[in-house]
């Protein structure tokens, strides 16, 4: 199937690189809206940018009518974004179709759609497995799963992909860093980590609050805390082969602040709480 999908992609996109690529969204929730913004604006540059700089003028985006206020606002904001009257109308106008609906309604929504064999389908639905997706998207041959994040709006996020056609990988490189996994269990493990966003922000909020309690102005504390952890992650991002333990050890100067804090927090078992939360989230993927 993969070879057929790649041949299909070459047939669709190979000889006509200059024309508009037609991209449709079924569902316009927070993630879809972030992708629309990212695809509709030039690629990022400067600190923290990970996407491939690309002009958005070669994309034409079609939105389904769900979430009326958001879809209308996006269509009004970007000249190459059009809100259509139905999900099927989006499919009929699109070459690449991005499914971004809530898991409880995914089967119902897909069951009402008529795909073409030449559609390239990308699912952002967390609990919809590849085999079920491929069955419900027939006769479409090029089917994949993806995990974009809200930061795609600013062209700066990791995007895990499973079985993407090359054009899908290239497309998502415009809004972040595509990371292709070998199998679905790996995809689900990474998807589980996205469930830790709220506790991460809770942690930053607690640390910023501590600084505020010690006299730092709130805006300064918030900005410093966010930038501090972003800059540390950016260093690790530049050298992923080094591994996080190496960065931790490098920062832990003997007798220094980091050595003390690292020792105390590890001893408390605080890190293990995050692992245990992830362990409880993963079974939701089945």
Distance between the termini: 24 Å
Q: Averaged pLDDT, please?
A: 91
Ranges where pLDDT stays below 50 over 5 or more residues in a row are 10-17, 45-49
**Percent of residues in beta strands?**
5-15%
Characterize the main sheet. 8 strands, mixed
> Which structural class best describes the helix and strand composition?
alpha/beta
What overall geometry do the principal axes of the alpha carbons give? elongated
Q: In the CATH scheme, what's the topology name of the largest domain?
A: Rossmann fold
Q: What pattern of helices and strands is seen along the backbone? A: HEHEHEHEHEHEEHEHHHHHH
Helix coverage percent: 40-55%
Task: Give the tags.
13 helices; ProC C-terminal domain-like fold; Rossmann fold
Description:
- The chain is α/β, with parallel strands linked by helices and 286 residues long.
- The chain has two domains: 2-181, NAD(P)-binding Rossmann-like Domain (Rossmann fold, 3-Layer(aba) Sandwich), CATH 3.40.50.720; 195-285, ProC C-terminal domain-like fold (Orthogonal Bundle), CATH 1.10.3730.
- Helix content is 50%, strand content 13%.
- It is built from 13 helices and eight strands.
- It has helices at 2-13, 30-39, 68-77, 87-93, 103-111, 130-136, 166-172, 184-193, 197-213, 218-238, 244-251, 257-268, 270-281; strands at residues 21-26, 59-63, 81-83, 96-99, 120-123, 142-147, 158-162, 177-181.
- The chain has an eight-stranded mixed β-sheet, with helices on both faces.
- Helix 9 (197-213) crosses helix 10 (218-238).
- The two termini are 24 Å apart.
């Amino acid at each position: 199937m993969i070879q057929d999908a790649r041949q299909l992609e070459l047939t669709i996109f190979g000889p006509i690189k200059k024309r508009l690529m037609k991209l449709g969204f079924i569902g316009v929730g927070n993630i879809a809206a972030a992708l629309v913004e990212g695809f509709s604006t030039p690629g990022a540059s400067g600190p923290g940018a990970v996407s491939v700089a690309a002009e958005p003028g070669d994309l034409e985006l079609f939105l389904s009518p769900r979430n009326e206020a958001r879809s209308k606002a996006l269509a009004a904001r970007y000249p190459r974004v059009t809100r259509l009257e139905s999900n099927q109308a989006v499919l009929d106008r699109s070459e690449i179709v991005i499914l971004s609906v809530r898991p409880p309604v995914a089967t119902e929504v897909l069951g009402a759609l008529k795909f073409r064999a030449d559609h390239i389908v990308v699912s952002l639905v967390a609990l919809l497995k590849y085999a079920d997706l491929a069955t419900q998207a027939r006769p479409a041959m090029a089917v994949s799963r993806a995990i974009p994040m809200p930061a795609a709006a600013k062209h700066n996020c990791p995007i895990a992909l499973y079985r993407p056609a090359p054009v899908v990988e290239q497309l998502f490189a415009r809004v972040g860093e595509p990371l292709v996994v070998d199998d679905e269990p790996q995809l689900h493990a990474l998807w589980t980590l996205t469930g830790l966003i709220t506790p991460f922000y809770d942690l930053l909020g607690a640390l910023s609050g501590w600084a505020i309690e010690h006299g730092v102005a709130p805006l300064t504390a918030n900005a410093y805390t966010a930038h501090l952890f972003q800059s540390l992650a950016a260093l690790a991002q530049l050298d992923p082969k080094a591994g996080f333990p190496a960065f931790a050890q490098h920062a832990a100067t003997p007798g220094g602040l980091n050595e003390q804090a690292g020792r105390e927090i590890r001893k408390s078992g605080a890190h293990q709480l995050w692992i245990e939360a992830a362990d409880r989230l993963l079974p939701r993927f089945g």
